């Protein structure tokens, strides 16, 4: 799966449709049932309604299917995953604009309700371009109307128009408080000779990168079952509800004192905040438009060489990457390497096939280029991230972050128990946002290792990040180049 964003994703020209949804309370008594809210959900949803809070997966179905079949299959996917049948509301009714920080607690102390609902797939709405270019060619209202636009029915849209329409549509409907906060869209080949391209967008509160793979796999399987006359999803493994995972986290005991002390040390090193990027990013008093850069670092053959190189030093490839970034941090800023490090909480196989936000944050800190030291730093970060964050962050009023926060993500699709055939052109699609931080993704798949970096589009940040990215790619490739020179 390739990591991209909605302005750069690959889409086929065609007709774009969105499957509308209807939501009803699952219980007549509003207080009959509320689901547990995880720390990360509370933090994300607590920032309120805003565009760009979503992520999406795009892929082609393995065979031609009409919209009716796709809608039925989608209904079966929704019935399979509990988080797709839940919605957020405030316990009280404050104006989201008045909330400048996130809800700080999870569990019973959260200011949010997460309620179970009944969700039904409705009619298909065709998304149409507006007659004049507004907001990249669309308005948020016109982009998801079923009728009334100037375009002719069944209008074929260009790839650029489709990207703009998807962005406007998902920004409007994939809201943290959306009911529901997700949508399934279909891009149909005008001649209906090719399989349709599917794009599923969802607010981050209900999905993570792993969940996108689950959704793509499940919908493809449901469609194939329906076309073959089989019971939809009968061969899929059981999928447990994310709310059950949140409930288990709530029941965990407090982290041991050594974990609390280590977190205190980490936050104090950052001025009582999470790590920030060590170079000048310019004026970040308010978030600015993002800049996104992608680097294809290794092809499959080169990746195999580098993994063998890491193994010969008794570590994994991530340790080599940390070593390079540790050297860069010292050479460019004179500081240790420090970054927020997302880790997943699907240690138990019971969660492998579930949809939800099974990601929490840790911190990776290192000041020694030695590969063994780097690998130890990775292991420590994973250990720190294995404890519930709510009790750790409560004394700080939630996870403390400042402008310039620096985070890195490492995702090896080859090692996941759920995956999507590369022939279906799967894409992890991020929203286009305004940002005041730096995020870098290391993505490994069958084609090699790829970097994606998002940072503020300021003059200072562009200069700093391009220097840093050039050094990172050079450092990652250095063992390969030395090996080729000696061959």
Topology (elements, then pairings):
Layout: E1 2-5, E2 15-25, H1 39-46, E3 54-60, H2 67-80, E4 86-90, E5 112-126, H3 159-173, E6 182-188, E7 197-203, H4 209-228, H5 242-251, H6 257-269, E8 288-299, H7 300-312, H8 317-333, E9 337-344, E10 359-366, H9 371-384, H10 389-393, E11 406-412, E12 427-430, E13 434-435, E14 438-445, E15 448-456, H11 459-486
Helix pairs in contact: 2-4, 8-9, 8-11
Structure description:
The structure is a single chain. The chain has eleven helices and 15 strands. The protein is of the alpha+beta class and 487 residues long. The strands form three sheets. It has an eight-stranded mixed sheet, with helices on both faces. Strands 11-14-15-8-13 form a five-stranded mixed sheet. Strands 9-10 form a two-stranded antiparallel sheet. Strand 14 (438-445) and strand 15 (448-456) form a beta hairpin. Helix 8 (317-333) packs across helix 9 (371-384) and helix 8 (317-333) crosses helix 11. The longest helix is centred in the C-terminal third of the chain and has 28 residues, at 459-486. Residues 95-108 and 131-151 have low confidence and may be disordered.
Radius of gyration: 23 Å
Number of discrete helical segments: 11
User: Strand-and-helix sequence, N→C?
Assistant: EEHEHEEHEEHHHEHHEEHHEEEEEH
Shape: globular
Low-confidence stretches: 95-108, 131-151
Strand content: 15-25%
Oligomer: single chain
Measured between the Cα atoms of the first and last residue, the distance is 32 Å
């Amino acid at each position: 799966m390739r990591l991209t964003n909605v302005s750069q994703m690959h889409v086929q020209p065609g007709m774009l449709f969105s499957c509308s949804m209807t939501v009803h309370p699952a219980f007549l008594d509003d207080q009959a049932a509320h689901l547990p809210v995880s720390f990360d959900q509370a933090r994300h949803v607590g920032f309120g309604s805003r565009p760009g809070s979503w992520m999406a997966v795009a892929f082609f179905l393995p065979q031609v299917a009409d919209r009716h079949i796709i809608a039925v299959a989608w209904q079966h996917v929704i019935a399979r995953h509990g988080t797709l049948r839940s919605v957020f509301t405030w316990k009280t009714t404050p104006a989201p604009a008045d909330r400048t920080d996130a809800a700080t607690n999870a569990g019973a102390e959260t200011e949010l309700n997460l309620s179970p609902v009944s969700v039904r797939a409705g009619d298909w709405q065709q998304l149409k371009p507006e007659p004049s270019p507004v907001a990249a060619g669309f308005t948020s209202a016109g982009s998801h109307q079923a009728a009334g636009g100037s375009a002719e029915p069944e209008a074929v849209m260009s790839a650029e128009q489709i990207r703009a329409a998807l962005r406007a549509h998902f920004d409007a409907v994939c809201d943290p408080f959306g009911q529901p906060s997700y949508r399934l869209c279909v891009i149909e080949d005008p001649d209906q000779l090719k399989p349709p391209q599917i794009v599923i967008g969802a607010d981050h509160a209900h999905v993570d990168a792993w969940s996108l793979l689950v959704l793509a796999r499940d919908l493809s399987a449901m469609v194939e079952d329906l076309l073959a006359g089989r019971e939809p999803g009968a061969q899929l493994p059981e999928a447990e509800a994310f709310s059950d995972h949140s409930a288990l986290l709530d029941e965990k005991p407090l982290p041991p004192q050594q974990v609390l002390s280590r977190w205190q040390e980490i936050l104090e090193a950052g001025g009582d905040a999470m790590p920030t990027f060590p170079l000048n990013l310019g004026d970040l008093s308010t978030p600015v438009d993002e800049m996104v850069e992608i680097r294809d670092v290794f092809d499959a053959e080169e990746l195999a060489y580098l993994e063998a190189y890491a193994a010969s030093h008794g570590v994994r490839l991530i340790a080599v990457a940390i070593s390079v970034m540790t050297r860069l941090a010292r050479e460019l800023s004179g500081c240790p390497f420090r970054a927020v490090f997302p880790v997943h909480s699907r240690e138990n196989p019971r969660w492998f096939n579930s949809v939800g936000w099974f990601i929490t944050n840790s911190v990776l800190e290192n000041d020694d280029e030695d590969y063994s030291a780097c690998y130890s730093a990775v292991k420590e970060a994973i250990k720190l991230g294995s404890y519930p964050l709510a009790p750790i962050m409560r004394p700080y009023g939630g996870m403390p972050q400042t402008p310039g926060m620096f985070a890195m993500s490492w995702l090896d699709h080859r090692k996941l128990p759920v995956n999507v055939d590369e022939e279906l052109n799967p894409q992890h699609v991020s929203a286009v946002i305004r940002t005041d931080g730096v995020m870098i993704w290391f993505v490994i798949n069958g084609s090699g290792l790829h970097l994606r970096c998002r940072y503020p589009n300021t003059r200072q940040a562009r200069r700093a990040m391009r220097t840093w990215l050039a050094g990172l790619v050079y450092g990652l490739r250095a063992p390969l180049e030395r090996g080729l020179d000696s061959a």
